[in-house]
Structures are given as C-alpha cells and as structure tokens.
User: Which sequence fits this backbone?
C-alpha cells in the first residue's frame, strides 16, 4: 500500500444520483477505514487537532480505528463532539484538520472527515450509546437555536451537569442542518435526527415552535422562566437579494426559500403538502456552498441548471468537492457573469436573466480580485426559475427585543472571544456573531461559550 | 399541547377554533399572526389571530377552507391537537404603541372583507376597550359568508354589513359603503382594511382622495414566517419588504397590490394539479 495515497471512497454514480435525493458519498467500509486510518503518522504535535475548531483528539481516535476498536474511537470523539456524523460529512476538512496533516506535504492528507463519519455511522448502525451524563449541578441554562452552535453549547453544558433547554423557532430541531443542507449531503432522519437524539440523551430538552423575540423574550427566559444564563445561537437566516429589476417576479426565490421548501418541508418528496416550483431551466446566482446545494436540488427535481457567478472558478467560495460534484452531475457553470435584471413574461413569471460579462480587476479588501462589468456585453440566460444564493445575515429579532445587546453595523451580535455579549449573562456564538460561516466554526463557538457560561455561573454562585 | 378546546362552524367553509397555547396567548397583540401545521407532512399555514385570552391561555383562530391544507385544518375536531402552532409573528398594529389619551375618542373606520372579519375583531376589541370611536364595514359575497357579526357589533359604535348579492345588509361592495359614509360627511382619523387583496386595493383607491391614513394587513405566501425565506416579499414605497417581519401591516397607499396579487397566485397551478390528484376521500 502506498502511504501517500488515500483509500478512495465510493460514491453514487453521477448520472444516477442527479435524479435522486440519496446520499452522494457512500462512506468507508470497516476494511477501508482501517486501511485509511493506518496511514496516520501519529504526530507528536498533531497539527490536525490544533486546526479543528472543536479540537477533536484526531490521532487518538484514528489509532483506535486502525486497531479496529470502533467503540473506543467513538468514545474519544464523543468527548469533544456530539455531531460527528454531521461534521464528517459537511466540514471543510481540506482547510482545517486535513489541511494541517503532514501526509499532505508530500502526498494526500489523511481522510479524517471520512474516518470521523465512518466511526459515527458505525456507532449508529450498531446501536452504540456513548452519551456520558454528569450528575446534575442544579443550574439552568437556556439556549436559543438548535443549529450547530446551540447543539454544541448545550451538549458541553449538559456534560458538565447543567439543565439545558434549547428553544427552536421552527417545528424541527437542527437549524441549518435541517432547513439548509440537502438530504443528499446530509440525510435528515438517519443522521441529523439521530445525532440530535444523542444530544437529547445527554439530558438536553428541546422545545420547538418558540420564537425568542416573539413568543418569549431573552428577559422572559432570565426573569420568568428561571434560567441563569442564555446562549444565543440563532444563526444567520436572513436572505440577501441583489436589488435588481424583476426580483419580485414569480419564479424568483432566495436559496433559503428554495432549500427550506425542499429540506425542512420535504417538498422534494411526493408525501409533502408543501409545493415547490420546478423549473424547466433554473439559474442559480452565487458561488458558495448554498448555491451548489440549491443548484443540485433543482437538478434532482428535474430542471436543467446553470450557476451564474461574477468572478472566476478560482474564486468560487464553495468547497472544491461540492463544485466537482455539481459539475459531474451536469450543472453548467457560467463564470464572470453577473445578472443586471430579471425579465418576465406578460403574466409576471420569469422568462430570462439579463446578465453582463465581468472581468477581474484589482484585488479588493478581501484580497480577491474584484469583478468589473464589461460595457456593452449584456446577454440573456434562458430561465424560468431564478434562485438567489448571495449569502445571509443574522435575524434582528432577538437583538431588537433585548435591551443592552449591541450589534455591529452588519447586524451581527457583538461578542468577545468567549462568547460574552454586551449584556451580562447573555452569550452568543456561531453565525449570529460572525455572519454566515460553517457548521464547525459555529460548533467551536458554542463550545467556547459553554465554558464561559460555566465560569460565569460558578463565579456568580 | 396546542389542543383544540372548542370549535364552531361559522359557515360550511369557515371554522373558529379556540386552541390551547399559553405562551402565545400571553404574548399576542392585535395585528399579529401565527403559523400552524395540522399534520407531520403538512404545510406551514399562516393564520390571523382572531382573539386571545391570557387567563385561559388560549388563542382563537379562524380558518377558511380554500386548499388542501386549510381543509385539513377545518377537519380537526375538539380535543384534537395541532402538530405545530407558533407565534405570535409579525409586528403588532401601530396603534398598540399609541397612548390611551390618544386612542380615546380617535375615530377609526374598519373595513373587513370576508374572513378579514377575524383579524379585525381583536383590533376593534382592543380599541373599543380604550375608548376609540369605531365605524365598521363588514362585507361578504353573500349572507352565509358573513361571520362574527354579533361579536363585531358588540365592540364597535356602528356596524355596516354589506353583501354582493344583497342577501344580508346593504347590497353592494364595501367601497360603495365607504363612499356613502364619506359623502354623508363622516370623517375618520385612521382607517384599517383587512380582507382579500383585491378588496384592500379598491378600498385604498376609494379612500385615498379623502386623505384618511389607511393601514392594510397583507396575507402573502409564507414558509417560515420569521424572515428567513422571503416568499412574502412585497413592494412598499418602491422598496422590497418582508410581510412576515416588516408587516403584516403596511401603509395601503404605498403597497403594490398588483404585484402582491400576482405573487399570491404563484402556486395556484400546482395546487390545482395536486388537488385534482388527491380529491378522493376528502371532504368537500
């Protein structure tokens, strides 16, 4: 075996998966996992751990996988993460743990994500329960939002003995794991519901259908409902639009709406009562992971799909793997293209996207070369559905109804490194603080805040 | 949770349900709405809050069966529970922020079209308790569709019922009653219209020359109802707003009603298709 080469992972054939919502990546078998794990150099100073936002003890669990002791591997992971089957699937490992792997200097980095996923899937399939509950310490903490930040924060607090209640505004727990990321990347029942079940097994209570800022306020939680501290992990759920003519035509959707209909409401399945507009030709505007998710969802529903992005492929913010998968499935990419208007028919339904060609100019403050329109280069892209995947910003609902909670100019909650906001006893983390980022960064922020909340309550007592 | 404590069938297609939802009842204010799901695979359906009782911990909703999901809601019986019941959502009516002194003696004109009587009720009730003067026009297609007449009469100064076919009250549209009241010299400080989009559009056209400020409540399509999806986009004063978090109430003279009506019908073709497939075994 060549130590410099990864064990490949099986995937559904692109032609087949372009027409179903089953998972794209099929994961390692036990033999494959053991072989891959045996490549680990077990570094004295593991850079993978340092570059993991939740500091998963990677060499330790990988060593157990190599030995074939998957139970012990699962125990090691459970100390730092309640959501390994999720992280193993959706983390950008190439820029985190795997980006730090020494094997990657001369060859291919260890497939840490696939190994994490293997251990988590194996535990689930074998009914392993690794939840270690602490003795109750009598203190109560409220967590707002059941996405990655809230689940990570709640898990750590529960493991430390706190009585934790998560308040979720939607009817299902999981936040972006539920409404945002599609079934073919992250199965909802098998993976998301199961791992949230593991969080519940730690003693965490989840109350759905509670909109903090409307049903209850942060002050209600602290003053009336008897919680000693509050963690806000409400995410970044507000969609952005371009503010171009025709954006309110019938058939123009935010990626959030399209994905929420398909994922949370299950509109991809005939069982669901929620309708979804299936285009003949769908144009997705944007180049991030959400754009890829929306495009691949529209494709699976039966539409032809084009992704329109104003920079070049090199600048696409989406993970390389997602772009690769999208291309394999037959999605068309039009780079250096920016919409200037959406055109409608006589009934007010979308018929085309008017675009302009772009060229790259000088680097902007983000270091990326900024796109400049090429005058006189306008043209039309045929489309009857347009999906805007331009990013999201935090919902102002909580900040707007909580005195003493400062927000930045971009609407993000102000919080320090530990998650402490400008209001004592109120902590925050994840996209609500940073703006739209990744699942794992939100989990890291949730963990840090859990530690800060623990200190806050202990010092108060 | 979310148990239906009582149900009243107001017309063959409209029901009134009192639902157990203590937190929602404690927080609800006039002008707000809620979202329900009646089954696990069900749609999230936005409904207006018709009444709330903080001591009983209940909220009253009024639903008209117009599609599969609203028919399912209306088929639930006393003792049944909603799968999900969330709110209150949206901004309360602006007058909730007015002082009691300001409200006392303020002259309101309310216009309720069809099911619009339901969301109008808590507003009129609130204002009546604060001592405002209220004229209320309740319009419907026909006598059978006039709802909450006695409840409304009890909380306003004058109630004018009108029906398209004249089977109850005056014959004619709400706009003809508006024009008559204005012609008779009645003046108002504030008007509120809630009902079908088309009725609100024509109410705005009828009232605009009078200069009376008019608020409308927009029943747009929604999914989450909390600002996440943007399905409820409306153009108000040339700008895109979300009815779920910026509204549902807006200055009627600034609303692009034609766009709002067009967007409301976005899924009509799909619903008809689906309806056609699934009719067997359903109540009419």
Assistant:
């Amino acid at each position: 075996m060549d130590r410099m080469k990864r064990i490949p992972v099986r995937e559904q054939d692109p032609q087949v998966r372009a027409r179903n919502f089953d998972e794209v990546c099929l994961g390692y078998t036990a033999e494959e996992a053991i072989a891959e794990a045996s490549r680990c150099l077990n570094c004295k100073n593991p850079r993978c751990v340092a570059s993991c936002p939740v500091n998963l003890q990677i060499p330790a669990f990988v060593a157990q996988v190599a030995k074939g002791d998957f139970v012990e591997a699962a125990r090691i992971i459970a100390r730092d993460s309640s959501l390994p089957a999720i992280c193993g699937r959706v983390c950008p490992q190439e820029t985190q743990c795997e980006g730090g792997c020494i094997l990657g200097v001369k060859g291919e980095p260890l497939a840490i994500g696939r190994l994490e996923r293997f251990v988590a899937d194996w535990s689930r399939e074998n009914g392993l329960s690794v939840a270690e509950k602490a003795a109750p310490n009598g203190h109560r903490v409220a967590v707002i939002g059941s996405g990655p930040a809230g689940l990570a924060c709640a898990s750590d607090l529960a493991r430390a003995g706190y009585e934790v209640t998560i308040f979720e505004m939607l009817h299902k727990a999981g936040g972006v794991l539920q409404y945002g990321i599609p079934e073919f990347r992250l199965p909802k029942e098998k993976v998301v519901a199961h791992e949230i079940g593991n969080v519940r097994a730690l003693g965490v209570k989840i109350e759905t259908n509670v909109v903090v800022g409307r049903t209850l306020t942060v002050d209600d939680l602290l003053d009336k409902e008897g919680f000693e501290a509050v963690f806000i992990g409400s995410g970044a759920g507000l969609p952005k639009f371009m503010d171009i003519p025709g954006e309110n035509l019938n058939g123009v959707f935010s990626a959030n709406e399209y994905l929420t209909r398909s994922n949370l409401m299950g509109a991809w399945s005939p069982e669901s009562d929620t309708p979804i507009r299936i285009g003949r030709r769908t144009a997705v505007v944007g180049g991030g992971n959400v754009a890829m998710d929306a495009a691949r969802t529209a494709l699976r529903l039966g539409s032809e799909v084009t992704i329109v992005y104003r920079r070049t492929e090199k600048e696409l913010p989406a993970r390389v793997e997602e772009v690769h998968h999208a291309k394999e499935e037959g999605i068309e990419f039009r780079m250096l293209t920016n919409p200037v208007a959406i055109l409608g028919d006589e009934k007010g339904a979308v018929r085309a996207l008017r675009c302009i060609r772009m060229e790259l100019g000088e680097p902007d403050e983000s270091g990326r070369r900024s796109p400049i329109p090429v005058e006189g280069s306008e043209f039309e892209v045929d489309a009857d559905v347009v999906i805007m995947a331009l990013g999201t910003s935090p919902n102002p609902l909580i900040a707007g109804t909580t005195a003493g909670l400062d927000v930045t100019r971009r609407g993000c909650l102000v919080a320090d490194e530990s998650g402490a906001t400008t209001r004592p006893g109120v902590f925050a983390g994840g996209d609500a603080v940073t703006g739209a980022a990744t699942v794992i960064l939100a989990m890291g922020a949730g963990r840090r805040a859990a530690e800060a909340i623990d200190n806050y309550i202990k010092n108060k007592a | 949770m979310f148990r239906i404590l009582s149900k009243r069938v107001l017309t063959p297609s409209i029901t009134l349900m009192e639902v157990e939802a203590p937190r929602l009842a404690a927080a609800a204010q006039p002008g707000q709405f809620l979202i329900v799901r009646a089954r696990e695979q069900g749609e999230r359906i936005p409904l207006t809050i018709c009444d709330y009782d903080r001591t009983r911990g209940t909220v009253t909703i009024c639903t008209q069966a117009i599609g599969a999901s609203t028919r399912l809601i209306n088929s639930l019986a006393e003792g049944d529970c909603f799968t999900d019941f969330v709110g209150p959502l949206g901004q309360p009516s602006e007058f909730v922020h007015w002082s009691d002194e300001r409200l006392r003696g303020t002259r309101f004109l309310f216009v309720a079209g069809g099911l619009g009587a339901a969301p109008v009720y808590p507003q009129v009730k609130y204002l009546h308790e604060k001592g405002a003067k209220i004229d209320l026009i309740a319009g419907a297609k026909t006598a059978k569709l006039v709802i909450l007449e006695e409840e409304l009469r009890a909380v306003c100064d004058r109630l004018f019922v009108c029906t398209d076919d004249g089977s109850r009250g005056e014959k004619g549209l709400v706009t003809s009653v508006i024009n008559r009241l204005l012609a008779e010299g009645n003046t108002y400080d504030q008007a509120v219209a809630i009902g079908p989009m088309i009725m609100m559009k024509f109410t705005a056209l009828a009232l605009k020359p009078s200069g009376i400020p008019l608020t409308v409540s927009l029943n747009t399509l929604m999914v989450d109802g909390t600002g996440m999806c943007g399905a409820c986009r409306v153009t108000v004063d040339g700008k895109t707003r979300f009815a779920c978090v910026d509204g549902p109430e807006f200055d009627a003279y600034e609303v692009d009603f034609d766009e709002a009506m067009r967007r409301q019908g976005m899924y009509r073709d799909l619903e008809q298709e689906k309806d056609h497939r699934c009719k067997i075994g359903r109540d009419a």
